[in-house]
Automatic annotation (TrEMBL):
<feature type="binding site">
    <location>
        <position position="134"/>
    </location>
    <ligand>
        <name>AMP</name>
    </ligand>
</feature>
<keyword id="KW-0808">Transferase</keyword>
<feature type="binding site">
    <location>
        <begin position="11"/>
        <end position="16"/>
    </location>
    <ligand>
        <name>ATP</name>
    </ligand>
</feature>
<protein>
    <recommendedName>
        <fullName>Adenylate kinase</fullName>
        <ecNumber>2.7.4.3</ecNumber>
    </recommendedName>
</protein>
<feature type="region of interest" description="NMP">
    <location>
        <begin position="31"/>
        <end position="60"/>
    </location>
</feature>
<feature type="binding site">
    <location>
        <begin position="58"/>
        <end position="60"/>
    </location>
    <ligand>
        <name>AMP</name>
    </ligand>
</feature>
<comment type="subunit">
    <text>Monomer.</text>
</comment>
<comment type="similarity">
    <text>Belongs to the adenylate kinase family.</text>
</comment>
<feature type="binding site">
    <location>
        <position position="32"/>
    </location>
    <ligand>
        <name>AMP</name>
    </ligand>
</feature>
<feature type="binding site">
    <location>
        <position position="93"/>
    </location>
    <ligand>
        <name>AMP</name>
    </ligand>
</feature>
<keyword id="KW-0963">Cytoplasm</keyword>
<dbReference type="GO" id="GO:0004017">
    <property type="term" value="F:AMP kinase activity"/>
</dbReference>
<keyword id="KW-0067">ATP-binding</keyword>
<keyword id="KW-0547">Nucleotide-binding</keyword>
<keyword id="KW-0545">Nucleotide biosynthesis</keyword>
<feature type="binding site">
    <location>
        <position position="173"/>
    </location>
    <ligand>
        <name>ATP</name>
    </ligand>
</feature>
<feature type="binding site">
    <location>
        <position position="128"/>
    </location>
    <ligand>
        <name>ATP</name>
    </ligand>
</feature>
Amino acid sequence: MLNIALFGPPGAGKGTQSEFLINKYNLFYISTGDLLRKELKEETKLGLEAKSIIASGGLVSDEIIVQIIEKTITENPDSNGFLFDGFPRTYIQAYILEGLMIKLNTSLNCLISLEVDEEVSVQRLLNRGKTSGRADDNEVVIRNRLKEYNDKTLPVLQFYKDKGIYFEVKGDDSIEEVNANIQGIIKEELNKSLFNLVLF
Ligand code: AP5
């Protein structure tokens, strides 16, 4: 299986790159942001619980995230693996992901972090906000999302650095260049897995 997590601040391009990757590698897409917005739209109990937190740019509780992931993940996906977008965002979520991977008898191959300057993120999201209809794409909330990212999510990178599966990609290059760099990392990881398979 090929399991990837795309990491990075709001507006880094995680969703944009995910679209290419899920088609190219036939991956089962899990975006916790999209799943939460679906719950919100359907006015479910979880959606209503998360509503005010998303609107303010805060992080939804780990308990809610576990519930939406468990609702979505399937033990035998009709795909080559999983692509996680915007998950994990806390240390607890990183451990939850570890548990999930073990339960599915697989492991995360790589966590790819898209690095962009904060002001690039802000500008991109303000532009997206003009057409996306996302209530959290306004400057006050964007800045709070960035603060949450810096305070609570960024430290999680150490977990993946320690595991040796952390990769960094410059996110402010063109969409095509970012995509080519991500694919370069995935190709190397696939070659490594193939090598290990042949060797052992
Ligand atoms: P979520 O939906 O995950 O939002 P986010 O992380 O803030 O990320 P975005 O979707 O805003 O940005 P992106 O990196 O996907 O960028 P995109 O590709 O769209 O989360 C929303 C909220 O849900 C959170 O604030 C939180 O409350 C809650 N939540 C979600 N997951 C959670 C979790 N695990 N735990 C707790 N709470 C959680 O690109 C942005 C724009 O830039 C687009 O217009 C795009 O066209 C453009 N663009 C992209 N790449 C480029 C490029 N290379 N050059 C130029 N423009 C580009």
